[in-house]
């Protein structure tokens, strides 16, 4: 039996008793779990001892919503609303599917960056259209297993044609163009659920760190039988049901246009809101939506950076919290965010909600943001009994930061330093399931230099091919811009430009 003892550290447990209040003590790790936390702990002979003096030990961060399928598109796009951006990052007119080695490398790169910035758990809804194949899903699981991160993974699904999941699309896009957007018969609910069951049997529980999750892309992109079948399977297997809901103003119009009700009400009427449900984004929700979500016990992942970059708006986080909704934090993909850092998301969210109005009592505190980045994220992943806080019996998923860094000097309030001053570069050590996977800024399981060199060698050719795909899809951009414009006009009655800035009514 192997033990690790972290001695004389400043500890922030994020548990129900202490929260973000730091104290001095030791952390004893026994194999994969935390055995004890407190002063003057004793370890077995031969235990590894880590000097925690002038170090902060806290739970690893949880990235509750990301897409590894975007990892090679960092820094590629800007000034695009979601519906336009999707044409390029997830093109309708697709090229060849990414080869298996690159599929593995893009997932590995995301895991590497995540670990080095203090993320020990992530929920990855990667897209691999038009396929759902166990072998390709296995490449993603293999990457995360090799890196040593904890992850929930899914190959997200949609089975409603894109043009039928958008308001105004069939009337805006010329019929001859629509005819070019035929992709063959969509996957049936039965076929996707069979795939999910096979994936659960093949991959769920790998290394005690990796799980499959059920991820219908969005309610308007999936048939009712697919949504209800996915939710039933999630309940049966105690897995998350993870979906994108009401991210953009276009989606705010989608529910009333297609279903005569909001997308949240549509989900409630289908019976797919509950404890297992994670809603990514939740920007354009109203009070009635939030009441349904709170009553059902759902979790919302706040993707503050991504929502700003895509111009989606600002989720009404305080009102969601008042309604009883659990809040987690996510980066979204590194094409709509450009980093995998939850430290960045915490800081932006903290600053952003200060602009929500003059009532500063409603602004988000550093303690609340840290709660969302740890415990809330663990609950979103249905792993709150495993990770998210430092407690005896939980997995030893922890990070150690250098309190002698500029970001903590002079030291005032650790929680506020973490949210507003620190970044992933201050993380010295990362442990997942009791294993040190990053020490002194170096990953222990992965040859970083070799991986980065291979990516630099192989990816330019892939991106050159993607440039051609982008060119084909660029022809569709004016019509998708018009869909976005009409949706904004329908929802707000106001859509005009002053210089480069759209004048949006505040939604928070």
UniProtKB/TrEMBL annotation:
Residues 56-437 form the Amidohydrolase-related domain. Pfam families: Amidohydro_1. GO terms for molecular function: hydrolase activity, acting on carbon-nitrogen (but not peptide) bonds. The keyword Hydrolase applies. Gene3D superfamilies: Metal-dependent hydrolases (3.20.20.140), Urease, subunit C, domain 1 (2.30.40.10). InterPro entries: Amidohydro-rel (IPR006680), Metal-dep_hydrolase_composite (IPR011059), Metal_Hydrolase (IPR032466), MTA/SAH_deaminase (IPR050287). Keywords: Hydrolase. Belongs to the metallo-dependent hydrolases superfamily. ATZ/TRZ family. This is Amidohydrolase. It comes from Mesorhizobium alhagi CCNWXJ12-2. The lineage of its organism: Bacteria, Pseudomonadati, Pseudomonadota, Alphaproteobacteria, Hyphomicrobiales.
């Amino acid at each position: 039996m192997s033990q690790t003892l972290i001695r004389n550290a400043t500890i922030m447990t994020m548990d129900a008793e202490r929260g973000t209040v730091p104290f001095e003590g030791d952390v004893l790790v026994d194999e994969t779990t935390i055995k004890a936390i407190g002063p003057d702990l004793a370890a077995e002979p031969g235990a590894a001892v880590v000097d925690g003096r002038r170090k902060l030990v806290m739970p690893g961060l949880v990235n509750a919503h990301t897409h590894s399928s975007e990892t090679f598109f960092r820094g590629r796009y800007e000034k695009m609303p979601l519906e336009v951006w999707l044409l390029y990052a997830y093109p309708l007119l697709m090229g060849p599917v990414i080869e298996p080695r690159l599929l593995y490398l893009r997932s590995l790169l995301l895991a590497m960056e995540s670990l080095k910035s203090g993320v020990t758990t992530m929920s990855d809804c990667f897209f691999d259209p038009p396929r759902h194949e166990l072998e390709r899903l296995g490449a993603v699981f293999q990457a995360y297993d090799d890196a040593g991160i904890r992850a929930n993974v899914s190959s997200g699904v949609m089975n409603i044609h894109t043009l039928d999941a958008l308001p105004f699309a069939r009337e805006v896009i010329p019929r001859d163009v629509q005819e070019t957007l035929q992709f063959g018969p969509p996957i049936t609910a039965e076929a996707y659920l069979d795939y999910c069951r096979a994936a659960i049997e093949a991959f769920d529980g790998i290394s005690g760190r990796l799980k499959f999750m059920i991820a219908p892309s969005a309610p308007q992109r999936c048939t009712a039988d697919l949504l209800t079948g996915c939710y039933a399977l999630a309940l049966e297997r105690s897995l998350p049901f993870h979906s994108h809901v009401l991210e953009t103003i276009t989606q705010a119009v989608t529910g009333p246009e297609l279903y005569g009700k909001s997308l949240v009400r549509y989900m409630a009427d289908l019976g797919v809101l509950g404890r297992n449900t994670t809603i990514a984004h939740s920007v354009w929700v109203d009070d009635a939506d939030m009441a349904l979500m709170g009553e059902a016990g759902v979790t919302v992942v706040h993707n503050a950076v991504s929502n700003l970059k895509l111009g989606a708006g600002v989720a009404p986080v305080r009102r969601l919290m008042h309604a009883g909704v659990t809040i987690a934090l996510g980066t979204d993909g590194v094409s709509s965010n450009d980093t995998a850092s939850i430290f960045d998301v915490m800081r932006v969210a903290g600053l952003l909600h200060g602009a929500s109005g003059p009532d500063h009592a409603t602004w988000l505190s550093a303690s609340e943001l840290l709660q969302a980045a740890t415990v809330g994220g663990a609950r979103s992943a249905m792993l709150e009994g495993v990770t998210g806080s430092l407690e005896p019996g939980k997995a030893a998923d922890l990070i150690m930061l250098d309190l002698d860094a500029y970001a903590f000097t002079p030291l005032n309030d650790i929680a506020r330093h973490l949210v507003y001053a620190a970044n992933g570069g201050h993380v010295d050590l990362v442990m997942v399931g009791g294993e040190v996977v990053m020490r002194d800024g170096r990953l222990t399981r992965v040859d970083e230099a070799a991986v980065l060199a291979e990516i630099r060698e192989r990816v330019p050719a892939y991106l050159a091919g993607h440039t051609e795909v982008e060119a084909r899809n660029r022809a569709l951009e004016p019509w998708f811009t018009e869909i976005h414009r009409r949706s904004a006009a329908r929802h707000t009655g106001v859509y005009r430009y002053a210089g480069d800035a759209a004048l949006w009514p505040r939604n928070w």
